[in-house]
Each structure stands twice: as structure tokens, then as C-alpha cells.
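Practice problem 4.
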């Protein structure tokens, strides 16, 4: 069974609280992680919350990297979703662990779009059943 993509759901604990509240550093680190794993950056959007916390996404040609931080807990939730065979989401995940100075992480990898290659024709739209 071939999957269209790999999705790493990561929980980062014991992170540097100042980094987690610095939107500029978070954006730089997320983009750097995308580049290091071989992804092509398309766009990015980041937001700082009041009184603290950052959320953001780096859209890559191969899917996305997303982050939500809770500096008050030293915690960040990170998604690294990549499609194709040329980008390794684990490289980005390990890079972010280092950049955020995380003491520990918990991860789950989910294969996205597991398709039976014999039944799906490439570049053809698939009709979805609709609920009536």
C-alpha cells in the first residue's frame, strides 16, 4: 500500500520559553527546518498571541509545517506533513527539537492517503460518494 504523504504529529516538552514566544525566531526555525528536510517553501503566516504564544504555518510545495506554542508551559505542538519521496519529515522534526531546545518529544507518524496503486490512476480525479 503506497501512501501519498507522511504526517508527523509531535509534542515538544521542556522547550526554551523565550524562543516559544518569539514569533521571528519561530518563523526562521520553521523555514530552516523545511529547507533542511528538502522541502520547497511556498508561503508562511505566523501570529503572536497576547499575552503569549505563537501559531504559524509554513506552506511547502510538498504540504506544510505547522506550530502552536504555549511558552508558559514550555510546550509546542508541531505538525510536519510531507508528500512524495524526496522530503523527509523526520529531518524537520529533529531540527525543530534542537532549535526549540526541547528536553523531550513524543511523536506519532501517520501515513496519509494510503492508496491501492492498482485501483487509482495518477492525475485522474476520484469521484466521492455524497451523503444524501
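Answer key:
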Amino acid at each position: 500500500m503506497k501512501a501519498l504523504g507522511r504526517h508527523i504529529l509531535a509534542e515538544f516538552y521542556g522547550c526554551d520559553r523565550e524562543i516559544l514566544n518569539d514569533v521571528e525566531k519561530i518563523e526562521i526555525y520553521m523555514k530552516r527546518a523545511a529547507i533542511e528536510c528538502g522541502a520547497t517553501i511556498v508561503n508562511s503566516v505566523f501570529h503572536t498571541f497576547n499575552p503569549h504564544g505563537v501559531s504559524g504555518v509554513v506552506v511547502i510545495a510538498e504540504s506544510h509545517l505547522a506550530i502552536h506554542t504555549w511558552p508558559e508551559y514550555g510546550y509546542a505542538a508541531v505538525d510536519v506533513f510531507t508528500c512524495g519521496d524526496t522530503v523527509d519529515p523526520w529531518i524537520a522534526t529533529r531540527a525543530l527539537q534542537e532549535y526549540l531546545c526541547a528536553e523531550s518529544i513524543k511523536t506519532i507518524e501517520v501515513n496519509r492517503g494510503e492508496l491501492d496503486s492498482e485501483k487509482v490512476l495518477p492525475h485522474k480525479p476520484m469521484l466521492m460518494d455524497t451523503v444524501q
